[in-house]
Known about the structure:
This protein has 368 residues and is α+β, with helices and mostly antiparallel strands. It folds into 3 domains: 30-119; 121-264, TolB, N-terminal domain (Rossmann fold); 272-365, Alpha-Beta Plaits (2-Layer Sandwich), CATH 3.30.70. Helices cover 34% and strands 31% of the residues. The protein contains 11 helices and 17 strands. The chain has helices spanning 2-16, 43-62, 71-78, 104-113, 148-159, 171-176, 179-183, 187-194, 244-263, 284-296, 323-331, and strands spanning 17-19, 26-28, 33-38, 84-92, 95-102, 122-123, 126-134, 137-140, 164-165, 201-209, 215-223, 235-241, 272-279, 300-309, 312-319, 336-344, 357-365. The strands form 4 sheets. Strands 7, 8, 9, 10, 11 and 12 form a 6-stranded mixed beta sheet that branches. Residues 1-25 form the signal peptide. This is DUF2066 domain-containing protein.
Amino acid sequence: MFRTTFLVSLLLSAAALSVTTSAMAAEVSQLDESFVKVEDRAVKTRNEALKQALQNVILKNSGSQSALMAPSIASSINKPTSLIRQYGYKEIDGEQYLHASFDHQKIIRLLRDAQLPVWGQQRPLTLIWLSLDADGSRKILNDSSTDESRQTITATANQRGLPVLLPLMDLDDSMVIAANDVRGMFNDVVASASQRYNTDYFVMASIEPSADGLLNYNMALYPSVSDEPLFAPLIQDEGKVADADSAMGAILLALSEYYVGQYAVADSGEALQTQITFIDITDRKQLVDIEKYLQQLSAVKRVSLTTLRGVTAKFSLDLFGSEDDLQRLINLESKIRQQVVQRPIANESLDPLPVSQTQSTNYIWLGN
């Protein structure tokens, strides 16, 4: 059973996550699919599995557990057939799974109609430094570990559509960081060790037994790149749970809820618009790719190319959220380089003093 969970988590991770560590962030695809373990192919079993599959897909696209409590969402989960595109069964290592895919546009419309945030494909990549007990000593969970905790993180993160990395803990890592650095929350040491991984965020977390037989966990999230000293974490959480699976589930839930607050976008109900300018356009395919990219952003309602002059293209965007929401999503994209431009403000008076300047941003499409 354990090996099956591991194989399924690897299968889903390969299908769902495309991580470019040199450029930060990750593009999560297959947001409309889910695997659910089943005991048989009876109608009752199938119907319950389809409900669970839809619930998983809702969580992937909203990122928040609270979305499941919305009346319209709960009603749809109880009647999933109207949203199903196809389903079938797969056998993996002797275990049977129902594999269901749903109509992605209908899922997004369901969330929008419920006025819930939608989390797009481009998501922050998080490096997890996790300190665990191992045979009476402490260790940092590494990417090649066969420990059950490794498989649990993979499966749980995938279920939430949360791109994560674990450190290699090779010679380079071992020379600069130890489990006690993570357990002691020495953020400067961990931040330095995290630089080689080029992720958007890093987490320090530890799980250890308590005297009452339960497990204590704590975690703190930091940005991998910051202009300010890392004095305070972005979020911090701690608690006491029955087992390691529950501890890691709580840690990943805290991450997911934070990212939803930062990157998922709900419809504001207002008619918000903005314009965005791309420069160094050399062929029509770039225009098509840019428009396709902008249209899939969860902050964007509609896109139209309004001006094309030489190598400069200006797009008009109707937004679900604010310009800040849009900018946070663009900041995750490795295919775009931003160029800050200082523009003079016309001085209509006779004052001989230098004119003031205003700052704007142009964007350059780098493609694949």
